[in-house]
Request: fold
Amino acid sequence: MKPPLTPLIEPALLIALRDGTSHGYDLADQIGEMLGIDRIDHGNLYRGLRRLEAEGIVTSQWNDDEPGRSKRTYALTEVGEALLAAWAESLRFTHERLTALLKNYERKP
Amino acid sequence: MKPPLTPLIEPALLIALRDGTSHGYDLADQIGEMLGIDRIDHGNLYRGLRRLEAEGIVTSQWNDDEPGRSKRTYALTEVGEALLAAWAESLRFTHERLTALLKNYERKP
DNA sequence: TGACATATGTGTGAGTTACATATATCTTCT
DNA sequence: AGAAGATATATGTAACTCACACATATGTCA
Reply:
């Protein structure tokens, strides 16, 4: 019984980015905490970020200022902010449905 | 922006079956109403039901008593009831996470 | 040196989903 | 009677998603 959280990764990502620019590895941590997932799959996350960039949802640029492996820093575009607003509405709907579903389950028959 | 409701179809199905035996087409209606989905994909639903039967979650038998196309009537097994309880726990967790996510989004930055 | 954490990626096979199509029975409208 | 539409069960399939394994680079600490 796995909780269906994977479809929430994209909106969680956008919410994390709304609070400021960040890079993939750090975003994985933030999302993991938000969703209560121990391990976010990094491979798929980076692929997802590139897809979002191709769609104009986020932009990125390399950051070599700090020591260590170069980081690719992502930021939310205006299109991305609009998408997040749409996501929020859709999430509210899902939340409502989940509430109703659980209520239905918990009621005494 | 599609609400991620598809992963909730299986638990919704089990909840519907908990209230009594039913057949595929009718279950599609019940689930659709529970989840606020206009059209449940019948093809995949029937395939899903056969998968659940193979896994011992539900049982089925043909019902030719009523007029019209023969119906295959499904019922929840004990294994299925246990699975539903596990689903409920997992759904509660997802619900919590969704609540937190929306709260995070709605807070003023 | 070797292990581990940080950081960004590619490869891939299994499983899921959306959408189209087929078949059968019954009701309703024209 | 004929056509359309609802009820009911099912198959086919292309596209997509996901989990898991692997590759690569840099820095730290024992």
User: Anything to note?
Assistant: DSSP finds four helices and three strands in chain B.
